[in-house]
Amino acid sequence: MIDNKRIEFLKKDFVQGFPGYCGFKVEYAGKGKFQTSIEIRPEHTQQDGFVHAGLIAAMADHTAGYSAFTTVSEEFRILTIEFKINFLKPAKGKNLICRSKVLNRGKTIIVAESEIFSVNDMKEKLVAKATVTLIMVPASSFKR
């Protein structure tokens, strides 16, 4: 079980730096699961008006990382070591939602999955799916 103090830390930690700049927001955090959203702005789109693949990939990767982060103690941080993403259809709409979950947690390696949905008129369409491989790193090795 993950306690409320840890969940609140992860929610605040999630939106630092680039993810905060993009406008990612945490919708849900629980043991092995993390859900985020973003309101699409004009600068998030590419030349044809679709949400840029780079934004979708960043959302999939970062949200998966935090689903993994919910499974470790404060003594560890999480880093991505590999990810693969499939773009299933162009993303357009007012919002994106990313739902990530841990598929497997080993001693140091964690594999998570992200599904990204575009939302229009309260209807969700699956636009991308990613598999993310992450590693647990002792927090003491980071200088913050």
From TrEMBL:
GO terms for molecular function: fatty acyl-CoA hydrolase activity. NCBIfam families: unchar_dom_1. Its EC number is 3.1.2.20. The keyword tRNA processing does not apply. It is an enzyme of class 3 (hydrolase). It comes from the Bacteria. Signal peptide: none annotated. Pfam families: 4HBT (PF03061). This is Medium/long-chain acyl-CoA thioesterase YigI. It catalyses: a medium-chain fatty acyl-CoA + H2O = a medium-chain fatty acid + CoA + H(+); a long-chain fatty acyl-CoA + H2O = a long-chain fatty acid + CoA + H(+); a fatty acyl-CoA + H2O = a fatty acid + CoA + H(+). Keywords: Hydrolase. InterPro entries: HotDog_dom_sf (IPR029069), PAAI_dom (IPR003736), Thioestr_dom (IPR006683). Residues 49-123 form the Thioesterase domain. Belongs to the YigI thioesterase family. It comes from Desulfonema limicola. CDD domains: PaaI_thioesterase.
